[in-house]
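Question:
Now give any protein.
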Amino acid sequence: MTALGENGPIVVAGAGPTGALASIYLARQGHDVVVFEARPDMRRGDAGAGRSINLALATRGIVPLVDVGVIDQVDAITIPMRGRMIHVLGATDLALQPYGINPNEVIHSVSRRDLNAILLGAAEATGNVTINFGRQVTAVDFARSVLTIEGPGGETADQPFGTVFGSDGAGSVIRDAVLGANGGSQNAVRLGHDYKELTLPAATSGGFLMDPNALHIWPRGEFMLIALANPGGDFTVTLFAPNEGAGGFEDLQTSDQIARFFNAQFPDFAALVPDLVEQFQANPTGRLATTRVSGWSHRDQAVLIGDAAHAIVPFHGQGMNLGMESVRSLDKHLRANPQNVETAFAAFEKDRKPDAEAIADMALENYVEMRAGVLDPDYVLKRELALELERRHPERVSPRYNMVMFATMPYSMARTRANTQAELLATLTNGKTSIGEVDFQAAAALVSKLDPLPGLDPLARPEGLSIS
């Protein structure tokens, strides 16, 4: 049995939001932590454009931020979104689909860079965390307990370690080493759809050109555009589309092709972005994939966190929230097993892997919902009924989206309960075209057979949790 730090330095590979948060939790346990980050310090230069995908901060991500004392700083850079604003092609009126019926059921748009900067500052402020920017872990030697660190000029150096926390992303070097040592496996499945980020500018007055308090969606069946507001008045806009076929990226090469596509499919958006074609051609195209891993740790020497352990597609807005909630879970297991790091790591994977699998599946399902389902009258009716049943029976009914975004029940439990509720909603709406046709007496009888919902009590939403 080994205590954390007993056999050498504690190293975190990767200083993104998950790695930075992990270093704070480790420092709060009294450990000295060395962090290596391949990129330069984002707080001291331009991090570039086109690969941020604004983050949707929800309850599972807010709880750790409250834990480590940075929620007030984060509050200042977020914009609350109370629902989805649907831009229907050819329609002049916009339709808001609210997320929930309660005041705290909002998600918060936040810049990945700005949030990351806050967490980096908080890590350094502990006095126990040293961050080395422009330094990347490129190899792991478990036999010698040595990491190979590559500098900005390609020079390499050895770094002794006792335990390394692999937060180095979906292409993790630490993961490759861990799986090679423990015989684990990974399954990476590319979505077949890519993404491109664009910017909708602020108004000349500095205000917003669209409602900032909504997640804007232009659903188009096989592809979609989404937009999230930034505090400066601009919006981060992302096109998600197939790699091939009609509306796919392979057909968006020339200036004319790009202009025709946006003018035909998203005319209201295109009219607000004078340099749309130039942005599209200048910004990189990002790939999307789901990575499932078995074997998150190797003895007491290494453990995987964040995308290195469970990379998911962004369509439920949970990638960062999943990673941050996992870091909090890891902290819990390390505290419960202070003299046995290997046991803590094994308990961590057993605890979190089922939930990572569940949200990976739900994120894929939510892509279909966002790009097509939100226009389906049957989906809209079931969503409206789910919210009405939540009003009438809040202890037993909550829509799947709300169980994922605004509660702390395990993801796997949320998915199981959502499947049960889906059967109930299908029964109640069969042959119906409006909520006024639903038999609420029959609905009450069906709902009464459901067990009370866990994770929706005040403990799941402590006082001051939801930021404004």
Residues 457-468 have pLDDT under 50 and may be disordered. The chain has 15 helices and 19 strands. The longest helix spans residues 341-371. The radius of gyration is 23 Å.
